[in-house]
Amino acid sequence: MNQKRCNVFTGENAILDYLNPESQIFTPLVELPKVLNPFYDDGVRIYAKLLNTLPLTNVKSIPAFNMLKEMNRKGELNDVHTIIENSSGNTVLSLAVIGRLLGIPNTKAFVSYEVLFGKLQMLQLFGVEPLVNKEPICPDPADKTSGIYKAKKWGKRKDWINPGQYENTDNPDGHKKITGPQIFEQLNGDVQMFCAGLGTTGTMVGTADYLKGKSQKIKTLGVIRTPNNPVPGVRTRGLLKMIAFNWKNYVDFVEEVGTKDSFLESLHMIRHGIVVGPSSGFALAGLLNFLKKQKEKDLLKSFANKEGFINAVFICCDSPFPYLKDYFLYLDKSNFPEISNYEILIDKPDQNIKLPGSVNIEGYEIEPQQAFSLFYKNSKEEVEKKLNKGETEFVEKSSIIIDVRSKDEFDHFHLPDSIHVDYENFISRIKTVISSNKLVKRKVLVVCSLGLKSNTVTNILRKEKVQSFSLKGGITEWSNLDLPRWKPGTCLKNRC
Ligand SMILES: Cc1ncc(COP(=O)(O)O)c(C=O)c1O
Hints:
Layout: H1 3-6, H2 14-19, E1 29-31, E2 44-50, H3 61-73, E3 82-86, H4 90-101, E4 106-112, H5 117-125, E5 129-133, H6 147-154, E6 160-161, H7 170-177, H8 179-186, E7 193-197, H9 202-214, E8 219-225, H10 237-240, E9 253-257, H11 259-271, H12 278-296, E10 310-316, H13 324-330, H14 342-347, E11 365-366, H15 368-375, H16 380-389, E12 399-403, H17 407-412, E13 419-420, H18 423-428, H19 430-436, E14 443-447, H20 453-463, E15 467-471, H21 474-480, H22 488-494
Parallel strand pairs: 2-10, 3-4, 3-6, 4-5, 7-8, 7-10, 8-9, 11-15, 12-13, 12-14, 14-15
Antiparallel strand pairs: 1-2
Helix pairs in contact: 3-4, 3-7, 7-9, 8-9, 11-12
Residues 59-60, 89-91, 197-203, 232-234, 279, 317-318 line the site of pyridoxal-5'-phosphate (PLP).
């Protein structure tokens, strides 16, 4: 029997061999059908590179394996008992499993306090100990309070190690050894475009380094996240400034994509047999945006091969299952089939048991459209017109809108005529916040990024007898619906 062809792994190191991306058969490269590729008739062939089909089901198992392998080769893992890394997902899960097989029993991860609870459970499932850190999901490595900085410091303890995915060149080198050569060979070198989401930028830097080494004609597209639009694993332009790798040297074009488009593209792929998560949808959405712009400018031809075709590859990072709840949070109900006879489920005797600590927000969550009509005096068009004229008062005196995101996020953009009160401040000085803003006498709308922190604040306010509401889906959903926002950018032009 040909073990490699039959995909059999045996012996003492069978599992390690099975997890080693280098000893795997190539991950699939699958061409998208017309229904997922609106540019098919323009000669564009879009290929999904399915890194989600790796044994650890994610893109990060490539750098994780390569970083640990190289450390092991250099003897840096001798006597190590603990891996510490800043990561709330794929990297640390992969490090934990590979590390355990290499004889390192413990893996700990600094994770942002903004992480979803489901993600923490995922870490626990893989035996990773999460250390919750007070910082945003994509932290600044130079900041001493950041998980990246702390992980680096803890990694210097005796018999601890910090692989350091944000600056360890064995992260991109893994992709240079595996992802780049596979794609090149799978298309017989006939590749015109490569597209990937940018997180640590390891996937882009390593793969592009290989592909561009083969042909400078291969163009690369890096996809970044729109600010205030969560997508797991990828960064905004601002957050990329903190990355050590020189990704700009490898990226020819950049496209920005938001939460909703990422989840929608992922949903379309799932339903047509490409079962991949939101950051894969994000990469595809970026590629489609780019192709649309090039087509509008009549520039598609400039990317084509001699036969007039463009072979474009995008990276699929992981599966949708860890993010199941998020699809229902970010996408409209109309995207999902209805459940018939749901009332039978609700009537089941054990169905309404509340979990300890769960938030009872029922009735106080308010849809963005409804919140707009309840809190604003004018129509959407009137508010937008008045905003452009420099007017600032839109909310009745008997009402107030409070934004509990960070000051930076608030300054970036916010609901017109809303005020900022930091979440921590709100929670720790609740009585002062209530009295100084006369909240007991007013109708209050609480706003955060996604509608989770605002639920907590609304609950506390309700206990204090304040008539408060939590904006459902947060400012993310508000923006998706294109309801009026105050943006300092437009303000500069119009009124400052
Ligand atoms: C799901 C997911 N997508 C995309 C990325 C980005 O990949 P890279 O860090 O190589 O830029 C990551 C990185 O953590 C990820 O976890």
